[in-house]
Specification:
Layout: H1 2-11, E1 17-24, E2 27-28, H2 42-53, E3 58-64, H3 70-81, E4 86-93, H4 104-118, E5 123-129, H5 136-139, E6 149-154, H6 156-159, H7 163-174, E7 184-186, H8 193-205, E8 212-214
Parallel strand pairs: 1-3, 3-4, 4-5, 5-6, 6-7, 7-8
Antiparallel strand pairs: 1-2
Helix pairs in contact: 3-4
């Protein structure tokens, strides 16, 4: 973890912190990732927080709700978010066999559990596909009232769009909701390094209040992308 924080500070000095994936469904992330740094419980989150704080970096946690075992899934998110020093929690709500498979009611139940446990002032962000290609009644509407910020996944190369077109689509869809937008931009899959910078510049032009890039640790991300 010290190597991770050193790489960030030495090669990406404008970065303020990390978004750390902690769980999928009711399972900790280590079940799906054999990297020794993968999170296997609150103790591992605490180690990440300490390593990041040692270099002045923040730790934000995120995970993927499945909507199949609401209480257990909520427990994982709550346990990760309650680790001292964690700044916010984000939920990645996508469509597919390894993503959200629950109902709208399950989404509301999950978010109610999280808000009751974490309180009204703890920041919760909504990671979503902002291309209008998901049913609103399950993948958008039930979650929005509980969310403090919107984190659209905007991956120009994977979406087959130019940087500007991909950003226009995401911001055009989400701006009317009136919540802060912090896009999750593409830095993987051999996207040109210049396009990484361009995504950030263009996102700020469209009113982004912050940025994240997915993802540190991917095999395609190295010195030019940093």
């Amino acid at each position: 973890l010290g190597d991770v924080s050193r790489i960030i500070v030495d090669t990406m000095p404008n970065v303020d912190g990390v978004f750390l994936q902690t769980s999928q469904g009711k399972e900790w992330q280590s079940k799906f990732d054999n990297d020794p740094k993968a999170v296997n419980g609150p103790g591992a989150v605490a180690q990440w927080v300490a390593a990041m704080e040692s270099r002045g970096l923040e730790t934000h946690v995120w995970g993927i709700p499945h909507g199949l075992n609401v209480q257990e899934e909520a427990n994982r998110f709550i346990e990760a978010a309650k680790v001292p020093g964690v700044k916010s929690l984000m939920l990645d709500v996508e469509h597919g066999n390894v993503y959200y498979r629950g109902t709208a009611d399950a989404a509301r139940q999950l978010m109610t559990l999280l808000r009751n446990a974490l309180g009204p002032n703890f920041h919760i962000g909504f990671i979503l596909d902002a291309r209008r290609n998901r049913p609103f009644n399950v993948f958008i509407d039930p979650w929005l009232p509980f969310m403090d910020s919107l984190h659209p996944m905007i991956y120009p190369k994977d979406f087959g769009k130019s940087v500007t077109d991909a950003l226009d689509t995401g911001f055009g869809f989400l701006a009317p909701f009136g919540k802060p937008i912090i896009p999750m931009l593409q830095s993987y899959n051999a996207i040109p390094p210049a396009d990484i910078t361009l995504q950030g510049d263009e996102a700020f032009k469209r009113g982004a209040v912050g940025l994240s890039f997915f993802c540190l640790g991917d095999r395609h991300m190295n010195a030019p992308e940093f």
